[in-house]
């Protein structure tokens, strides 16, 4: 057809299209791109006539949807390797948090940092993800915990999107933990989020969703329910850090509020999983945090599968529980630690990750009409993406129809 900007030919395409349990392979195919979107794709020979402005033969290389990291906290200052050492010596994450470390230690560093410093620290993390084929990243606030600093974090995240080719989706995670000013007074802090942060964030369009941490060291289900009602009033979808260290009914809570996703889920109950299935909430698995915290209870993978809950995989990049700026590593860990198949790992970082961000309509699979966010790989089968460790395999990353790597 006339008007194609780019035609990729001689490609082995893993479309991930549909919900079928395979890669949606087109073994010798072509992809036509126009105006940043996929205008046509299919097997060689079925291609409609037309003169693309540019044709590129991939010589049999594999292409997949560009990867999507649907859960990160990559805007932060400082680092917490000392706590890592303390944990190796036997201290628990909860003990460190209760002693004023943990999330609060990163809150102190992040409050003290300027927006510029936060941006400069975060940009290489974004670039590290992109170097592995990631074109869409979700970034949460949650290390500011007051109006000024939560807004500062979200503005930095938005700026990362404006300064790179990547899509950045931002999430207000002000309910990450109780800030020192509100110690013993979590209810008042929840009111501050609802009455001051949400209106400002909504007015300035700074967040695409609202998240909270449901855990004994953070917020209770009733506190989060109150916040989620307000978020929904502002037309913001919700998601939840749920059942990571204990069963706090997080999966049920997320399902009740039609959350986009419930994340972590190590201790999610059978009823929680069933509720998620009914609500269509995505289970976002975060094996980097599981590994770093030395957890032993795995998320209920079989129950998620049998109930048909979509499973996504994300890096959870953060300085406390998942110092991992690599979505490929999360895929690798999900296969080793949780027994996800390589196909589940790839679907979990493309199609299901898009679903977890409410972006299924325009990305996550290779289909006509979706964004031309395409990763080109030096591999002989896409299962290798969950197999090799520390092996660079990205040949090229096309974002919105444009090549981003030299
Ligand atoms: O996803 N669980 C809470 N939030 C992060 C940890 C953040 C931190 O420890 O700084 C997580 O694991
Ligand atoms: Fe997290």
Bound molecules: N-(iminomethyl)-L-glutamic acid, fe (iii) ion
Along the chain, the helix and strand elements come as EEEEEEHHHHEHEHEHEHEHEHHEHHHEEE
Helix content: 25-40%
Biggest sheet statistics: 8 strands, mixed
The CATH superfamily name of the largest domain is Metal-dependent hydrolases
User: What's the rounded overall pLDDT mean?
Assistant: 96
Give a quick set of tags describing it.
binds N-(iminomethyl)-L-glutamic acid, 2 domains, alpha/beta, 14 helices, TIM Barrel, binds fe (iii) ion, 406 residues, eight-stranded mixed sheet, Urease, subunit C, domain 1
Provide an overview of this structure:
- The protein has 406 residues and is α/β, with parallel strands linked by helices.
- It has 2 domains: 98 residues, Roll (Urease, subunit C, domain 1), CATH 2.30.40; 290 residues, TIM Barrel (Alpha-Beta Barrel), CATH 3.20.20.
- 35% of the residues lie in helices and 21% in strands.
- The protein contains 14 helices and 16 strands.
- The strands form 2 sheets. Strands 1, 2, 3, 4, 5, 14, 15 and 16 form an 8-stranded mixed sheet that branches.
- Helix 6 links the parallel strand 8 and strand 9.
- Helix 6 runs parallel beside helix 7 and helix 12 packs across helix 13.
- The site of N-(iminomethyl)-L-glutamic acid (NIG) has 14 residues, from helix 3.
């Amino acid at each position: 057809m006339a008007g194609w900007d780019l035609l990729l030919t001689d490609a082995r395409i893993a479309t991930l299209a549909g919900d079928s349990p395979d890669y949606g392979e087109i073994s010798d195919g072509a992809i036509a791109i126009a105006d940043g979107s996929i205008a046509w794709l299919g097997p060689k020979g079925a291609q409609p006539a037309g003169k693309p402005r540019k044709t590129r033969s991939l010589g049999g290389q594999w292409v997949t949807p560009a990867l999507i990291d649907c859960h990160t906290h990559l805007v932060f200052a400082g680092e917490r390797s000392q706590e890592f050492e303390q944990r190796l010596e036997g201290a628990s994450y909860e003990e460190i948090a209760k002693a004023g470390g943990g999330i609060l230690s990163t809150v102190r560093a992040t409050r003290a940092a300027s927006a510029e410093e936060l941006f400069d620290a975060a940009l290489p993390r974004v670039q590290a993800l992109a170097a592995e084929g990631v074109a869409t990243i979700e970034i949460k606030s949650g290390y500011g915990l007051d109006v000024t600093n939560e807004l500062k974090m979200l503005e930095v995240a938005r700026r990362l999107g404006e300064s790179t080719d990547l899509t950045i989706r931002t999430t207000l995670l002000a309910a990450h933990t109780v800030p020192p000013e509100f110690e013993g007074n979590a209810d008042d802090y929840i009111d501050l989020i609802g009455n001051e942060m949400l209106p400002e964030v909504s007015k300035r369009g700074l967040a695409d969703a609202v998240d909270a941490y449901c855990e004994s060291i953070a917020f209770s289900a009733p506190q989060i329910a109150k916040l989620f009602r307000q978020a929904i009033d502002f037309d913001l979808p919700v998601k939840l850090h749920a059942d990571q260290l204990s069963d706090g009914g997080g999966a049920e809570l997320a399902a009740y509020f039609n959350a986009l996703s419930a994340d972590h889920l190590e201790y999610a109950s059978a009823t929680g999983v069933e509720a998620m299935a009914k609500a269509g909430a995505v289970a976002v698995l975060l094996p980097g945090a599981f590994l770093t915290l030395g957890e032993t209870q795995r998320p209920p993978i079989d129950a998620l599968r049998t109930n048909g809950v979509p499973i996504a995989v994300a890096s959870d990049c953060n300085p406390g529980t998942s110092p991992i700026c690599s979505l490929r590593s999360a895929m690798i860990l999900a296969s080793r630690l949780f027994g996800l198949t390589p196909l589940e790992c790839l679907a979990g970082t493309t199609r299901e990750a898009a679903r977890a961000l409410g972006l299924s309509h325009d990305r996550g699979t290779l289909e006509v009409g979706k964004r031309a966010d395409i990763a080109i790989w030096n591999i002989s089968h896409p299962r290798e993406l969950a197999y090799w460790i520390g092996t660079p395999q990205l040949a090229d990353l096309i974002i919105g129809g444009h090549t981003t790597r030299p």
